[in-house]
Amino acid sequence: MSAELLEDARRALDEASKFVDLSEDAVEQLKRPELSVKVSVPVRMDSGELTTFAGYRVRYNTAMGPGKGGIRYHSEVDIDHLQTLAFWMTFKCALMNLPYGGAKGGVQVDPKRLSRLELERLSRAYINKVADFIGPDRDIPAPDMYTNEIIMGWMADQFSTIKRSFVPGVITGKPVALGGSVLRDRATATGAYVVIDEMLRARERRPEDTTVAIQGFGNAGAELAEQLQNGGYQVVAVSDSKGAVYSAQGLDIKTLRDFKEKNSSDGVYHAYQLTDCEDKNFEQISNQELLTLDVDLLAPAALENQITEENAEEVRAEMIFEVANGPVTASASEILAGQGVEIVPGILVNAGGVTVSYFEWVQNRRGERWEESQVRERLDKKMRRAVSEVEEVAQKEDISLTTAAYVVALRRINATIEAHGTVDYYQS
Fold first, then answer.
1. Shared-domain flag, residues 303 and 237
2. Is the separation of the CB atoms in 83 and 58 below 8 Å?
3. Span 83-129, pLDDT tens digits
4. Domain final position from 180, 195, 222
5. Statement to judge: residues 95 and 77 lie in one domain
6. Which of 180, 201, 229 is the last residue of a domain?
7. With 0-12 CB in 10 A as exposed, 13-18 as middle and 19+ as buried, what is 145?
8. Tens digit of pLDDT for each residue in 318-331?
9. Closest CA to 199 of 103, 320, 305
């Protein structure tokens, strides 16, 4: 399935390449990842036993700069899966015009089964194994699924211990006290909110007349739900991995968030599901039912491949904003396009996270600390500029927003590769 995911992701690139005069060198470089590393990560468990986990780091393409991409802890992590995520990061960074290439890493583990001390040992052991492959000028990790600022702080500290010097720029998404940037923990959701608001404003849609369903109630999904509700949107459904809650009148998002935060495991992972919340002013539905609700906006903010050719025809939303990476498959996109559903791609919608990671990296290298107003203003400007560029290409070429986003990114990557000298230069 993971290998198929990469092939599915490349279909968007194939479509975009029809609108870009690609050099042969660019085609060759984008065929496969530059680097894929698998390591064994030994961890001494609280019981005294030694358990070894599989760890990975992938860099897909670094034509535009050092690798950039998160580290995820998940039981289904494998090298093919991470290659796909690194592929998406390559184009996301190019779309946002950041001086980065795409990378991704992870450990094959169910982190909820680990104690806090085991989690710290795992995080430090992983850095011990990949330290030679990362660095502020080589490859800069960040948080991803089931990792957070606490874990990034452990990792940054371990890297500094290995190098015997303070190297805050090696990892982003750290606690502010350890050189992290304000707003980083809310950056993905904040960027997504800007994209949604900009897109709907251009379509003359009012927030108060717009219903929203969000699949996924992790850091990005929960924060986006609250921002949308505060912005006047009607958030009628949200879900976590165990189920979904729905209310036609709109949910009390703050109450749901408070419940999840108060019931977390060791302060790291949520131990209870949304449907356990004492506030019963909602109807319990399944995750699949959430995807097919009659709403104006659907925001998948969980895992990949949530909307496929099997359920695409049941989707009734007018627009889909991909907060997660690759939640809509290529075949599903074709079906949805036939139904008149507009899809805004993840490489645009969820790009707020990597953008503020870039701001953090810049602050670390300069030895600066920016105010939240500065970070928010810079993020807002970059997100709105990217939306404008994608919309302009989509209208000019009469193509989907997904293809347009890849066209913008591909043109930048191609120009960078050509600037290094291509076959045309050397044969002239």
1. yes
2. yes
3. 999 999 999 999 999 999 999 999 999 999 999 999 999 999 999 99
4. 180
5. yes
6. 180
7. buried
8. 999 999 999 999 99
9. 320
Query: Which of 309, 310, 288 lies closest to 300, judged by CA?
Result: 288
Domain around 237: 187-349
Residues 196 and 297 in one domain: yes
User: Does residue 353 contact residue 223 with C-beta atoms inside 8 Å?
Assistant: no
What secondary structure letter does DSSP report for 220? H
CB 375 within 8 A of CB 183: yes
Indicate which CATH number applies to the domain containing 277. 3.40.50.720
Q: Single out the catalytic residue among 68, 92, 104, 260.
A: 104
**112 is annotated as an active-site residue:** no
Q: Output the six-digit token pair for 185.
A: 């923990």
Q: Specify whether 281 is located in the same domain as 151.
A: no
**CA 96 – CA 348 distance, rounded (Å):** 8
Which residues in the chain show pLDDT less than 50? 1
Secondary structure (H, E, C), 129-154: HHHHHCECCCEEEEECCCCCHHHHHH
Q: What local confidence, expressed as pLDDT, does residue 393 receive?
A: 98
How many domains in the chain?
2
